[in-house]
């Protein structure tokens, strides 16, 4: 099993970040790269990412490449090392005395075998996955290279000799799903199976909005999608996956911001809104200025 886990580690990079969206103008609150400044501190940068390996996303604009080059440190939602990825995969697995089929039933299981096979996930691994992990995977685009934007930036930072940090632990990111009841996980899985055929079009819409740097459009799209799912789940997604994590990440990026010349990359949906990272930074006295 460990060999299967290691083989699929890059796939997991994409998955755990999902557990994680008008043309831009300076006054609109839109944009992806933001300068973070405060008196007495050197300038830092926050970049909103989309967890995709689509070439439209991974072809970095000059402004982003230059900001990363100038930075002394790189911080992502997680420290993207292989040990963390393997830990994440282990946390996605059911206890040894359970199988996915015993939890979700034969009919759902057979559908999952077929769909997950298209992601390159073998049945030997699928049979031990938790329902929420399968649902999250089915809600993601099929990887092309496996090197999604956040991982690309991490690798660039490493090659440039920068110190790297993570704002959260694997356990913290996974706890949102692990704390769901079994019935909530089944609702989530049924929704993912039902929507799977439409998922490529939805992902393409998000990528199109992202390339346009349309934070507001991404958030509106996400809000509309949330309205389509079970209300108990949408509440968990909004409160636990976005708002609570925003506050936690802003608190934990303070050491790097204090040192200065930090480059911080988080999912774009964490940036906008009254409880978004940009507004929380403003409330702490930072000047937040869009660059790109």
Number of helices: 17
Report the average pLDDT across residues: 88
Class by helix and strand content?
alpha/beta
Large-scale geometry: globular
Percent helix: 55-70%
Largest sheet, strands/sense/barrel: 6 strands, mixed
Low-confidence stretches: 1-28
Task: Give a short summary of the structure.
The protein has 17 helices and 6 strands. With 292 residues, the chain is of the alpha/beta class.
List the SSEs and their pairings.
Elements: H1 2-7, H2 9-18, E1 33-37, E2 44-49, H3 55-58, H4 62-70, E3 73-76, H5 82-91, H6 100-104, H7 106-117, H8 123-126, H9 131-138, H10 149-159, E4 163-166, H11 170-178, H12 182-195, H13 199-211, H14 215-226, H15 231-252, H16 254-259, E5 262-267, H17 277-283, E6 287-290
Parallel strand pairs: 2-5, 3-4, 3-5
Antiparallel strand pairs: 1-2, 1-6
Helix pairs in contact: 2-5, 9-12
């Amino acid at each position: 099993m460990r060999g299967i886990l290691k083989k699929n580690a890059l796939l997991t990079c994409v998955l755990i970040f999902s557990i994680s969206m008008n043309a831009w103008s300076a006054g609109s609150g839109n944009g992806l790269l933001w300068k973070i400044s405060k008196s007495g501190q050197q300038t830092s940068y926050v970049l909103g990412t989309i967890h995709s390996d689509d070439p439209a996303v991974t072809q970095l604009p000059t402004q982003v490449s230059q900001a990363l080059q100038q930075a002394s440190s790189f911080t992502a939602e997680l420290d993207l090392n292989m040990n963390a990825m393997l830990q994440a995969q282990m946390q996605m697995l059911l206890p040894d005395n359970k199988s996915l089929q015993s939890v979700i039933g034969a009919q759902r299981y057979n559908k999952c075998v077929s769909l997950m096979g298209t992601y390159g996930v073998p049945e030997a691994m699928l049979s031990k996955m938790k329902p929420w992990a399968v649902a999250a995977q089915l809600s993601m685009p099929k990887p092309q290279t496996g090197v999604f934007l956040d991982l690309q930036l991490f690798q660039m930072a490493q090659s440039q000799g920068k110190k790297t940090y993570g704002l959260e632990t694997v356990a913290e990111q996974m706890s949102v799903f692990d704390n769901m009841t079994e019935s909530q996980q089944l609702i989530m899985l049924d929704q993912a199976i039902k929507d799977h055929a439409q998922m490529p079009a939805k992902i393409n819409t998000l990528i199109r909005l992202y390339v346009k740097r349309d934070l507001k459009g991404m958030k509106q799209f996400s809000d509309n999608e949330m309205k389509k799912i079970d209300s108990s789940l949408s509440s968990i997604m909004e409160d636990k996956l976005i708002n609570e994590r925003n506050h936690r990440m802003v608190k934990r990026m303070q050491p790097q911001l204090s040192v200065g010349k930090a480059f911080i990359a988080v999912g774009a949906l964490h940036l906008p809104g009254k409880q978004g990272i940009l507004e929380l930074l403003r409330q702490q006295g930072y000047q937040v200025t869009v660059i790109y």
